[in-house]
Write a structure and sequence with these properties.
Blueprint (H helix, E strand, L loop, with lengths): L6 E5 L3 H9 L5 E3 L2 H6 L5 H11 L4 E5 L5 H12 L5 E6 L9 H9 L4 E6 L2 H10 L6 E5 L1 H5 L6 H11 L5 E5 L5 H10 L3 E4 L1 H4 L12 H16 L5
Parallel strand pairs: 1-2, 1-8, 2-3, 3-4, 4-5, 5-6, 6-7, 7-8
Helix pairs in contact: 1-3, 6-8
């Protein structure tokens, strides 16, 4: 994929879009979350997950727990991880009360359950997660770089530091979450980030990587011309 080392995952819960992306080999894996599932109109979690794994049997897929306490999350994790060998269980680094889920992350990792630890924002959280992971157990640490940038803070120093911390433990990969634009893919690739999750509109732009920008002026004006013609508007 345009000589990128970073893997591109599609972020969404539209099963038909996921099937198409998988068939066209436009992405390397998939992530979902409760908000995306609600947006996509998912009505049956298990049915959705089982259909996704059946359609996508050999690419990474992450499904998130819904619980807000360790006991509930642990029960849900057992159900989710049983969906398939390619499934990663998404566990938030804290719950809604701000309580750390590190004890659960450590417990699940010791059981060789593949995790995608989500809602991560600080290097301290990254460090604590990596310490809790059993060496060799595949794990994603999802740092929400896009939402950090939304606060006016440059996420790059954190992401560079997180790359080093994650790569100190066998099996741990850094995931750039909440991608905002195609250039984030280039940024993630340049710093050695392992994975970046992209919404559908960004995934569609990936073939643009490497295009000659000198061609874009003509392309842009041609687009304007089509819109003028279809609009029926005139000046004279």
């Amino acid at each position: 994929m345009n000589n990128l080392n970073v893997q591109v995952f599609a972020d969404g819960a539209d099963i038909e879009q996921m099937k198409t992306a998988y068939a066209n080999k436009t992405v390397d894996g998939f992530t979902t979350n409760p908000s995306l599932m609600a947006k996509a109109g998912v009505e049956d979690y298990k049915a959705f997950a089982e259909a996704a794994v059946k359609a996508i049997p050999d690419a990474s897929i992450s499904f998130e727990v819904f619980g807000d306490d360790i006991e509930t999350m642990e029960k849900e994790a057992a159900i989710i991880q049983a969906f398939g060998e390619n499934v990663f269980v998404k566990i938030p680094v804290v719950n809604t009360k701000g309580e750390s889920m590190i004890p659960l992350i450590k417990k699940l990792s010791e059981q060789n359950i593949k995790l995608n630890v989500t809602a991560v924002y600080t290097i301290e959280q990254v460090t604590d997660i990596v310490k809790a992971i059993k060496p060799g157990v595949e794990t994603y640490v999802s740092v929400f770089a896009g939402r950090i940038a939304d606060t006016g803070v440059d996420p790059m120093p954190l992401m560079r530091a997180a790359v080093k911390v994650c790569h100190d433990k066998e099996g741990v990969k850094l995931l750039w979450a909440s991608c905002r634009e195609l250039f984030n893919v280039i940024q993630a690739d340049e710093i050695g980030c392992d994975i970046i999750t992209c919404p559908g509109d960004v995934v569609k732009k990936i073939p643009n990587i490497g295009r000659d920008i000198n061609e874009l002026s003509v392309d842009t004006v041609q687009g304007f011309a089509k819109d003028i013609q279809s609009s029926g508007l005139s000046i004279l």
